[in-house]
Please model this.
Amino acid sequence: MKWVDATRLLTEPTIDSSDPIWLELKLVAESLRSGGKIALPTETVYGLAADALNSNAAESIFELKGRPADNPLIVHISQTRDLNDLAQNIPPQALLLAERFWPGPLTMVFPKQNHVPSVTTGGLDTVAVRLPSHPVARTLLSIADRYLAAPSANRFMGLSPTRAQDLDPLISEGLDFVVDGGPCDQGIESTVVDLTGNPTILRPGTVSAEVLASVLGEMPLIRTSGEKSSPGMYRKHYSPRTPVMLVETLHPLAVGLKLGETKLESQISMPLNPNGYAQWLYASLAELDRRDVDLIEIEMPPKTGAWAAIWDRLNKIIG
Ligand code: TXA
Ligand code: MG
Model:
């Protein structure tokens, strides 16, 4: 595995082809074009990426993650018009959503085009597509000139990494490259919306139901649990190795995530607003998970709609 530090793209998103980083990313892109696997930063979480239209490459993502074959991957594109190459029956509402939220943390599900391998879609005849905004993801997508299948870069059921240093060594050892693009600024996975029928949220995210409704002109349905609504939506998911418990108020002797300020070494202070909280949730859990502790306690955030996506993840973390 080779490590590529591409954090400079955060401040200089446009680099030219003589830049040393561009040359390094070109090697990463070549690896993707020949079936390689990499960890790449997106604005939500780090992805484990490979060529989405290469069945062997997609297959190797499942192997490295230890992910069941019926759990479909999200395909990442670099421009909205690529959607036509992957999906069919794209409703006008989808284009409105793309216009408003792409590039960004929204994934849309459509009937797939025939050439999208069924290994990528977990055997389904639908495909999930997303156009990420992270400058490193965008640069790599365009240099590689491939669609990239990228689930979160964790082992099955593990915590999604939101910083390159949080990658599980079991994952990084199996990769051709790890591309470091700094900490992800959303911190939780994209909102997934099924557009094969009435718009339906399959996974909540920072693009909320209310904000989707403002574009759709109607409230989307919400179906985030239940058998096979979206394969891969297991009740327990996204968990650190250490047991985790939710508490009303964090005891001063407890190890865990504290809402607001704390000066205790054993506790991590979490932002009081949902976006800031989401951004640091997985990184903070990863941090505590690396310490040799018996239990991580999480002080419960408010139960209002603004915290819905965070509650979805907290419920999956505790299982
Ligand atoms: O933010 C994200 O979406 C990250 C970054 C890397 O883009 N990716 C991610 O992928 O979270 P993953 O594989 O961990 O989660 C994909 C989710 C799963 O819940 C899966 O069931 C759903 O998307 N999904 C994928 N394809 C689908 C399909 N054809 N129909 C229904 N749900 C699908
Ligand atoms: Mg995941």
About this structure: The pocket of magnesium ion (ligand 2) is lined by residues 151-152, 160, 189 (CB under 6 Å). The chain has a mean pLDDT of 95. The longest helix spans residues 274-290. The chain has nine helices and 15 strands.
